[in-house]
Amino acid sequence: MEELIKQAYGNIFEEALIKEIAEVSTLVEFEEGDRLIEIGEYIRRMPLLLTGAIKILREDRDEGDLLLYFLERGDTCAMTLACCMGDTKSEIRAIAENKGSLAMIPVNKMEEWLGKYKSWRNFVFTSYNKRLSEMLSAVDNLAFMKMDERLLNYLKEKAKVNNSNIINNTHQEIAYELNTSRVVVSRLLKAFENEGKIKLNRNNIVLLK
Amino acid sequence: MEELIKQAYGNIFEEALIKEIAEVSTLVEFEEGDRLIEIGEYIRRMPLLLTGAIKILREDRDEGDLLLYFLERGDTCAMTLACCMGDTKSEIRAIAENKGSLAMIPVNKMEEWLGKYKSWRNFVFTSYNKRLSEMLSAVDNLAFMKMDERLLNYLKEKAKVNNSNIINNTHQEIAYELNTSRVVVSRLLKAFENEGKIKLNRNNIVLLK
DNA sequence: AGCCCAGTGTAACTTTTGTTACTGCCCAGC
DNA sequence: GCTGGGCAGTAACAAAAGTTACACTGGGCT
Predict the structure, then answer these.
(1) B199 touches strand D (CB under 7 A)
(2) C or N terminus of chain B, fewer CB within 10 Å?
(3) At residue A95, does pLDDT exceed 90?
(4) Exposed, middle or buried by CB within 10 Å (0-12, 13-18, 19+), for B178?
């Protein structure tokens, strides 16, 4: 456990803090597709992502979940932070993108550390900043880009967090996360294939260099 | 000055903190249209909004500024906070929506107070949370709403922050902030007028109850 | 083998949004 | 009173995205 934490956070937290984290936190392992946080849930423990990736989604009014961004090793969810500190309900949904693990920290500890460790304070602020930045990117995507560009970005992001240029998703799943329809996704993917950007197979898409 | 701060923040900060703020901060008065923060700027002092309203914009790649949200009395800009703490460039533009004033606080003080005043720490976190929330609303607007709904929301927001149901903007200006074209705005506004939701005049729009 | 069905390809059409172009109107300044 | 320019109304068209409908296909299951 301590080893895992060190791997993910060794370069930003001091020894003492890592020891404390290891002591008070509980390890949670998750599988692809696990729902880690639901909209409307209260969050009592703050998660630190150790391995794997998590996707953060915003629910559509009717159906589908818009993908906001991914979290990777060393990240924490500022939305969750917000909920812990503010004692409010979660406004987002978090689903495991792939297999991984996280350390859960009691809220009271994270407040205590704010005073005690400068590195922790930095981490918390950096997390907020990163998340605000990611939200800005999400806004840019939605406001300034056409569907084809958004889709291509999506494929690249997906390839990155999974460390593989093979994307194992159906067109329908992609459509949900981009808040569009399956037909539109199929259409654009076919166009990408004709342009030589991807190779389409059943149940997977290969991103070509 | 101290009086102004007390009016805007009296219910959340303790006496001692308000005194300190009054001592170290400088008062800045601004007029409608003043550019308070530019994209790419470094920010060395953190602003606390005392009176008036400020709009926060995200620049389009080609042209136009998408409106993200408004700040009002008692708010601070988390983006700015992010820049102060992280010592990075601003990713957004801030323009005065109307006449007002703000207190500028040196960065080193705001860090010092994080340890010293619990109310300050709360304020900083609450600000971050509010901003994340606003960003989520912006995403919702962009992702899930059609232009007509976005426009109507825009008019309502505008009326609210200006405390008047008369909106003094040209269709072109509105189009910029919604990242669309003037013709589209005119078209939709005309439809709203026919539905009895607004009254169109030259250079202003009256929002009807 | 035969069947089923999720996943995909595609056509045809609609809706929404963006673009271009032109008209008229109001008002400030001469 | 005349005029020019900013602003708004509108038509006509183009592009992007969403919708409906249907055909095909490859695997898993009986």
Answers:
(1) no
(2) C
(3) yes
(4) buried
